[in-house]
Each structure stands twice: as structure tokens, then as C-alpha cells.
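Just curious. Invent one:
>
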Amino acid sequence: MRSSMDSYALRSVLELPSPFRSMFSFRYFNSLQSECFCGCYLSNINMIISAPTGSGKTVLFELCILRLFSKFLTQEGKCNHEKGVLKTIYIAPSKALVQEKLRNWNMKLPTWGITCLELTGDNESYNTKNIHEADIILTTPEKFDAVTRHGVRDGGLSFFSDISLVLIDEVHLLNDPRGAALEAVVSRVKMLSRSKEMTSSPLANVRFVAVSATIPNIEDLGKLIMKIKTFPLNICT
């Protein structure tokens, strides 16, 4: 789906529930964010978003995260959630990008009791309890591939049933030699989501949202989509 941002009126932060408005330091979403607002916050569709560097793609991830946690909002406007029951996996190509997002979200998200966990080669202090209780796991394709491949062999992937949202940053890396790890991770998530054991779990309806400044390898991405069979495509440019 391709459409022009020019036809979109800017959406206001006031359209979000009052507890979530403090997440953003501005009053209006920009053109890209306004165009994708309905897709990110008001639906559960899978999306691939291509937009220039500096256009505010991180906010789109944050809207998807807030949609997930809106399920825990009470009538009194409080966010009461049980740790780790609706899990987000954020995948970025480098530890530096993972750590940048971790710092950013650690400043914004603890307000609602949301816990972030870094899963990279630089952080080996995690354990099974940390992973189960984390609401957002920030990782690289290689690290998540290694951790989950080991877990599949040992039957230690019970936390997978709680995965509700997968955010993929710089998705064009599929055209990179490291793209195989990302493809393996996405395929593994989809494979487990279709298993009978996961039918009543959040994973059965896992959502994918991927962004990139450029997607020159759209054919490679298409092959991945065909391979995993269920990845509805919505491209905002």
C-alpha cells in the first residue's frame, strides 16, 4: 500500500489516552507519523515502513508498543500489567543501536512499569527470570538467533508464547551478509506461532513492524514474506 503523506492532516498527541501522552515531547505527530498513526496505534496490521533517516520512525515503534499496553489501561487511566505477558522483541543490526534505544526507552517507559532487557554480546547478565519478566527485549539478529536456536534444542523457549510484537529496525540488512540471521529469527517466530501448542497464546497473533531508511532489496524481502507465508505488507513511503 503506497500513499502520499501530503493528503494526511497532522494527528494530535491528544488522540492518545491521557496516560500515554507524556511519552512524546511534542503536540503533533509529523507527516509520516500521522499517515501511519491508524496503522500503528489503531490496528494490529503488519507493516513495512520505508522513510528517510530522521523522519521519526522510532515514534512509529513507540505507537505500536503503546497499542500493546493499552490493553492494560484501566477506566481510571492507570496501566496495570503483569510483567512479560505481552512481550515485544526489538531487533536492530548493531549493539550500538540496541543500546541507544535501550537508553531512550528506559527514560520513557518505566512510568508504566514497562521493563526493558538488553540481549546482546555486551550483556551476559540476564537469566531465565529476567527474560520471562521483561516486557521489551532489545537484541541483535545474531544474538537472538543464537539464544533461540539453543532454546529450541533444549525446550527452553517458554517465553516465546508471550511474544506479541516484533519490531525490526533497518530491515534492509536482509541484503547484507548478516541477513541470514534475521531471516532465521523471523522464520522461527512464525514457525512457532503456527504450532498447536501456541494456539491460545499471544504468539499465535504476533505482529511484525519493520522500518528502514531505504529498502533497495524489496525482492529479498518479498522472498522472506513468501517463505513465512503470513506477513501482510503495508508500505508507507
User: Anything to note?
Assistant: The beta strands are 47-50, 87-91, 116-119, 136-139, 163-168, 207-212, 235-236. Residues 1-7, 226-235 have pLDDT under 50 and may be disordered. Residues 179-193 form the longest helix (15 residues). The radius of gyration is 17 Å.
